[in-house]
Every structure is written in C-alpha cells, then in structure tokens.
Amino acid sequence: MNLFDHNRSLPIGSDAKLSTGWWGVLALIVTESALFAYLLFTYFYLSAQTEQQWPPEGLPSLTMPVINTIILLASSVSVWASEHYIRLKQIRWSIGLMALSIILGISFVLIQLIEWHKKPYGLTSDLYGSLYFTITGFHMCHVVIGIAVLLLLLVWLSLGYFDDRRHAAVTIGGMYWHFVDVVWLFVFATLYLFPYSDSV
Amino acid sequence: MAISDKKHNLPDNRLERVPEYGCAPTGSTAQMRLADTWECNPGWRGWFSTVDHKTIGLRYLVTAFIFLLIGGIEALIMRAQLSLPDQTLLTPEQYNQLFTMHGITMIFLYALPILSGFSNYLWPLLLGSRDMAFPRLNALSYWIFLFAGVFMYASFPLGQAPNAGWFNYVPFSGPVYNTGPNIDVFALGMVLLGISTTVGAVNFIVTLFKMRAPGMTINRVPILVWGTLTASVANLITIPAVSLAFLLLWLDRQVGTQFFDVANGGKPLLWQHLFWIFGHPWVYAIVLPAMGIVSDALPTFCRRPLVGYTAVALATMATMMFGFVVWVHHMFATGLPTVSLSIFGAASMAISIPSAVAVFAWIATIWLGRPVFKTPFLFFAGFVILFVIGGLSGVMVAAVSLNWQLNETYFIVAHLHYVLLGINVFPVIGGIYYWFPKFTGRMMNEKLGKWSFWVMFVGFNAAFFPMHIAGLLGMPRRIYTYSSHMGWDSVNMITSIGSFIFAIGILIFLVNVMISLKRGVLAGSNPWDAATLEWSISSPPPAYNFAVIPVIASRHPLWENRLNESSERSSLSEGYLLTTGHETIGTSPIDAKPQVILKMPGDSYTPFFAGLFVSLLFVGLLFHWWTFTGVMTAACCVTLILWMWPRQSLVQRAVSNAGHSSQNNSEKI
Ligand code: HEM
Ligand SMILES: [Cu+2]
User: CA–CA separation, B475 vs B490, rounded Å?
Assistant: First the structure.
C-alpha cells in the first residue's frame, strides 16, 4: 500500500488540536452559539412588536457594563496567555495567569450582580424584564460554568498535570471561555447598545 | 519497507511511536490481546458501565422499538374510537392525551432514536474504527434518552399526560388554559431529551471527521453516514430552538415570565417560529438517515453499486439546506404577509428537487441491477413507492392556496403518515432484516419476512390512503368523534381496519425476530454478499471490531475484485494493530491520513450517574423541590469532574519523568 507511509511516527493520546476533545468543544460552541442566536432572535422578535416603553427605565447607562465588558475580554487574554506559557514551559506563569483569569471572571459576575440589583424591574414584572433577565441569566450561567472550568484547570496545572506536550484540557477549556466572552459581546450589543439605535 | 524518518533524539515512546503494522488472524497473540482489552465487564457491572457502541446501538434500537409499539397501541385505541361515528370509548380529554402522546412518542422517542441506534451500531463498523469518538458520551446520550422517555410518560397513568398536540401551541398550552402538570412534563422532558440528542449529534460529527479508517476519504463514506451527519449538524443547530421554546414556556407557566403572554405583550407566534425552526429540519433528521439505510442496503440486493453516489450525497445535504429555511410553511394559515408566504411556499416546493434526485437514483439502481427479491429488498422498494406518494401530497400542501384548504384536515394526517411511515418505518424494518445477521449472527426467516412485508404494506395503504379522502371530505384532524351525517363513516371504517392489519404485520415481524433469535440459520460474516466494511468481520462482531484497522481504497471494499474500477485494493487483513490498551487511529478530516493514535476510555460508571443526576434534576424542577434540584446539580458537577479528570492512561497528562514503567498503572476514577 502506498496510500500513506505507515512507518511514520504518530503522537499518542490527547495531543491538543488533534484530540477529539478539541473537535468536541467546537461542536459544543456551534450549538451554544445557536442557543444564544435564538435568545437574541426572541428579543428582537418581541421588541419589534412591542408597544411598551423599551427598555422600561429608558436608555441603559453604559459605564459599568462597558467596564465589565473590558474585564471579561481581559480575562480571555489572560487565559490565552496562560496557555501560551505552558507551551513555553513556564508553568508558574501559566498558573498565575490562570488565577488572574478566574479573579477577572469573578469580578465580572459580581459587577453583573450589582447591575441586576439596580434594575427597577424583575424577571416577572414585565416582558422586558423577562427578556433581560433570561438572556443575561443564560449568559451568567455560562460564565459560572466557565469559571468552574478555569478553576479545575488551575487545580490541574498546580498538580503538574500539564506540560508543553500534553495540555489539551487547557486548550479546550480555554476555547470555551473565549466563546463565553465573545457571546457576551453580542448580548451586550443587543441589550445595551441596540436601544440607542432608535434614539438617534 | 520504507525507512522511518525518525529524528535522532529518541522521542518519548509514551508520547509518540510508530504504530505496529501487520496482520492479526484469529488465534494470534495480537488478536487475543485485543479481545482481552476490549471485552467489557461481565454481569450487571458491565451492564451499567459499558461504553461499547454496539451494545449502546442495540439498546437504542430495542428501546426505540418499544416506544414504537407503545405509540402504536395508542394509535390503535384512537382508531377503535374513530371506527364508527358517535362512539364513547374515549372521552375528548383522553383522546387529546392519546394523540398528543402518540405524536410525541413517534416523533421524539421512536423516529430519531431508532436511527441513532442504527448509526451507533454501524458507524464504527462502516468507517473501520474501534469505537465512536466519545464512547462515554455515547452511553450518556442513551441513558438520558431512556430517562427522558420515562419522564415524559410519568404523568400518563395519572390521566394527566401532555394534551396540546405534539407541537404544543400556546396559548392553549400556556398557564391560563392548561393548569395541570401535563404540559410541564412535556416541556421539561423535551429539554432533557434535547441534551441527549445534542451530545449524540456532537459524537457523530466528531466521529465522522476523526475516526475513519486510513484511506477512507470523504467521498468514500457510505450514504448512511452522510444522512446521519446531515441530521446531526441540523440537530446541533436547531435543537437549541426547541429547548429554548420549551424552557421559556415552562418559565411562563411556573415562574411567571411573559414571553407568550398576550395580555402583557408576549407573542404566541413566537412559539410557532421557535418550534418550527426546529420542527421542519427535525422532520428531515428523522428521514435522511433512513434514506441512507436504503441507499446503502438496496444496492446489495440489486447486485450493483448505487447509481449516482455523489448526486445522492449532495442531495442529502441540499435537502437539509432547504430544510432550514422553510419552517414558515407550517404557519401559512396564521396571517403572515403574503410575500413571505410565497417565498416559503416556493422554497418548500424546491425541496422536492433533491428528493427527486434520490428517488431517481434508487429507481435507476433497481433498473440497472439484477434485483434479488429478498425481504429487505421488498421493504426498500415499498419505501420508494410510499415516498413518491407522500412526496406528491407534500408538494400539494406546500402550495399556499391548497394549504389553506387542507390545513388541519385528515389530508395532513395522511401526508405525514405516508412520509413518516414510508420514509422511516419501512426502511427501519427493512434495515433490521438486513443487519439482523450482523447484530445476532443469525438470519431472519424469509417466509415470515415476506408475509410481514405484504401485510404491513397492504394494511398501511388501506389505513392511510382513505385518510386523504377523509381530508378532502372536510374531516378535521384531532377530533375525538364525528356524526354519521358527515358522510365520513366508510372511510373511517376502512382506515381503522387497515390500521389493525398493519399492526398484525408488525406482530408477524416481532414473531420473526423472536424465532430467528433462537433458531435462525447461522449467518457467517457476509450472508448477503454485500460490499461495505461491516460485512468483513464476523457476525456478531468482536468487542474490538477490527483486529487490524483496515486501509480503504474504494467505496466498495468487498466488491473491488468484481467491479475492478481501479487497480488499487483495500487492505483488510493487514493494517495498524494498535494492541497497547484501548487504541484506535485518528485520521485527517478530508483525506483520512493517519494523524494520531487515539487512546479510548474503557468501561465507566460516570455516564450512567451523570445521566441519572441530570434526570433527577429535572424531576426536582417539575415538583419545585429546589433543594433537591440543587443537590442534584452538585452531584452532576462532581460526576462530570470525575469524568473529565485528566488521566495518564488516556495520555491527557504530562508524562512524569519518574519511572517509564508506571504508564500502565492507569487509575480508575
Ligand atoms: C399503526 C400505525 C399508526 C396509526 C394507526 C396511526 C394513527 C394515527 C391517528 C389516528 C392519529 C390522530 C389523528 C388526529 O386525530 O388528528 C395520528 C396522529 C399522528 N401520528 Fe400516527 N399512526 C401510526 C403510526 C405513526 C408513526 C409511525 C408516526 C411517526 C413516525 C406517527 C406520527 C403521528 C403524528 C406526528 C401525529 C399527529 C399528532 C398530533 O396531532 O399532535 N404515527 N396517528
Ligand atoms: Cu415542514
């Protein structure tokens, strides 16, 4: 057979992007993206037909949400860097950056909780409230799961499970975190920026 | 032998190696080692922990078939009620619950799961792999499917089953008009089932792209694989729509949100959009793999390859592409703007083009071949006929004007049964006849087989053809009885008689299965003299599937000498051995070049417990047991953490420098 050279040496096990897990997380991201797309579709569908004051409190204040967005994006960068340092065999840096990402992630959650608290409406008070809290709530769930994943990665890194050649879990978990962050940009644009488009 | 291009600094042989290449005939040490490694635990422990795709596939098949029988019994009760006018066998509410549960059971608990059963069992065998990409996820998907099925039936004995039809329109299914637990059971059950379907879809997609035998380039995979792949991609993209719809409905009902609440600005049509964005592609998801079964098995009985492989593969995907954008044809009568009706109507008609391509390919295959009239052939040929009839009535209802006339009449019931039984049930039964020897090592009885086909075929047409007429006579669907003044008596009587004849056909099939399991003729590895890889190994296949990973050179590895299409030959007895633990080869997505030695997980309890805890979590939600729900969520997390914990045995971790020999001390978590 000369279809391929069967004397070639092949990597064994979970080798980063050759692993099935990597493909699995990509598929997961596709389906989760679809989920958020339908959530936002629901928002636009209902807001296009509403006769209510939208959003009820008038145009949303942007300061805290923008800061929070920046925090979340920063956490993505540090997760990326954490993986990068594993490849450079600098595990300590990697651990530090992973911890930093987690702190940033938790800050996002706390600030978002304050945002929630400040809203004059709730999940069940009116249609806008139902949409706002369901959409941000869905995203919040994903952030919390993401933080749990990062925590696990931190534990595993500290236990010395990963080195420059085997760290698929970090690649995969990191990818999920990037997804959670990118989705936030869409949620943010829809809930915070889109209302401004009517007023210009 | 070529000289390997190994580097000078010796690579760590635990991180990379040249996989052994050679033969492993029966009885060789290599083969015995494989048997040892892949054999699953005996007894009940193996029962709960197995991740073998063949076992899981059979479980899917049996469970889904039981759901078919349950749904069938519900249908027969309905037909008994409708056989004569003004009957009182059922109350209106009971009738509502029966047609709803019948629809739910058939569409969600039978039609897709049974195809997942075929695909789970067959994919690794068709692709030349030792398992699916994610064996544990596969087990999880089965357990959740089973639990979701039980969940959705839980309120049935209490007389409080879902009762708003399988598409469950609001406002009738909303909190105002439907106050019992009926709809909550359906809503939560569907979200749960959605998890099962989604992880199953992920598994199929990754398996296709990573797990094909070397040389099985993307244009050499069997059509069943194309069908299931297309269905899986569609599921991945559209299941979230229906899960979301049901979750929002549940929130509306139990928490007090207002998504569908007209009084507060919610929109019932939102439900219809979200449901049908999912619903229409789903209809294709439950027929495309079944069409794949026919495309792969029919040629065996025509003694020639499928005519137009590429056209059929492309048509499969084209159908789904159209399928994404036609959901509005379920909403023609809801008062949407005419422009959108015309566009969606035209798109719906266009779908018949790829379907026609497939039909012509099958007819041409029969025409140009030398058909052997065995039982499976009869089912596949019967399928082609029913497909044409169902397709014709489909084009009719895709016309907006006719749709307005026929919507909500028995014409629709006739159409959907022609399509669903024609394109799903007939190929499925034919497929079972065809692969039964592979599943069990024994042939099914031909005589009973022919009887079962003819009884089913005649019964089916007697039952469902008159429904077209009932529809044209104006009989609405979903009515629990009718007066004899309407002039619908005889069509209904014929339909009911036909239904029972069809049921007898299914019964004959079941008797055949029972008898053949015990006394069927021993099959051997390739009883039909078929062309594809699954027939190259013994029946039933060994736990490790392939003693050596084959190298594939064509679409018909077992017919190469006969067809002589090129000088290349597949190598079935010589290939990668991979006997160091659970291993198989990972190849590149398009041209299937070997890329990596994949370490596969062995038996594990985690899928069972993960499935159990998730399901209990939903039970908690149903009863508003919040603490219980919280505990189950925590239990789920713990199980998943154990599941994901990186292991040395799967080479997910850095290889420790302390002691090369410790690599086989795989920890069992
Ligand atoms: C013995 C075979 C079967 C018989 C006699 C039968 C009979 C019926 C009857 C009497 C109805 C209710 C019609 C109405 O009142 O509107 C119905 C509805 C339905 N059937 Fe079947 N059926 C059979 C098999 C199947 C199969 C195999 C499938 C799917 C794979 C299926 C899918 C459906 C669906 C989706 C509905 C609509 C339920 C609804 O209105 O919500 N049926 N069938
Ligand atoms: Cu449709």
Answer: 13
